[in-house]
Amino acid sequence: MLKLLRIIVVTVCCILICVLGTIYSFIRFKKPSNVGVMARCFGRLCPLFGLNVEHRFPEGVATYPRAVYIGNHQNNYDMVTISYMVRDRTVTVGKKSLIWIPFFGLLYWVTGNIFIDRENKSRAHNTMAEVAARINSDNLSIWMFPEGTRSRGRGLLPFKTGAFHAALTAGVPIIPVVCSTTHNKIDLNRWDNGKVICEIMQPIDVSNYTKDNVRELAQYCHDLMEKRIAELDAEIAQSGK
């Protein structure tokens, strides 16, 4: 019964956010701040899932320069956990098929996010070049999930290099964002689904890397994030939450 009630309430809330957010974003057509506003709206739904989400922001995050943010992509619950961490003037890069999701697809487009055609490598490469150009020309930051797909309990998957090529081309730092493990943690029939921690890590300077060793940069970021996720999981386990 609780699961059914949650599904109904969450569905209604998501539709309302999408509809009202689309109207709001049409008024402020593709303004970069739209994405963060909508992401935080979805993030506020976490109590409906019985989740206590702690959001950790480093000191001085408000003055961070434009950057490429990279997050771990676990499952559909990312929408109410790690999405809250999207900063102002940050847009995301997502697969073009998102446009066909009822209500959400239109919102995703009108807020100013960038679509990528993953099936066409040439177009995907051109999109990354466009992303790098827009970072500087429009004073934007970019948010990407470098795993390219949801991990669904398989741990932090290997990173694709698109986000790192964009950072190198634009000459901006990489900023990892991590979320503790949510796989198999959430039972919609359970009132309390415990604690989740989302954290923005320190910026990573990319000036010592080039396109020739971009995979080393991707692996370095992967290892840092993997280690931090394990630390967050251990912290939650120790607290018993």
From TrEMBL:
Membrane-crossing segments per the record: 7-27, 97-116
Keywords: Acyltransferase, Lipid biosynthesis, Lipid metabolism, Membrane, Phospholipid biosynthesis, Phospholipid metabolism, Transferase, Transmembrane, Transmembrane helix
UniProt protein name: 1-acyl-sn-glycerol-3-phosphate acyltransferase
Domain of life according to the entry: Bacteria
Pathway(s) annotated for this protein in UniProt: Lipid metabolism; Phospholipid metabolism; CDP-diacylglycerol biosynthesis; CDP-diacylglycerol from sn-glycerol 3-phosphate: step 2/3
Biological process according to GO: CDP-diacylglycerol biosynthetic process; phosphatidic acid biosynthetic process
GO terms of molecular function: 1-acylglycerol-3-phosphate O-acyltransferase activity
Domain Phospholipid/glycerol acyltransferase: 67-182
Family annotation (InterPro entries): AGP_acyltrans, Plipid/glycerol_acylTrfase
SUPFAM superfamilies (alphabetical): Glycerol-3-phosphate (1)-acyltransferase
Ion transport in keyword set: no
UniProt domain comment: The HXXXXD motif is essential for acyltransferase activity and may constitute the binding site for the phosphate moiety of the glycerol-3-phosphate.
PANTHER family: 1-ACYL-SN-GLYCEROL-3-PHOSPHATE ACYLTRANSFERASE (PTHR10434:SF11)
Organism: Pasteurella bettyae CCUG 2042
Keyword match Acyltransferase: yes
E.C. numbers: 2.3.1.51
Family under the similarity heading: Belongs to the 1-acyl-sn-glycerol-3-phosphate acyltransferase family.
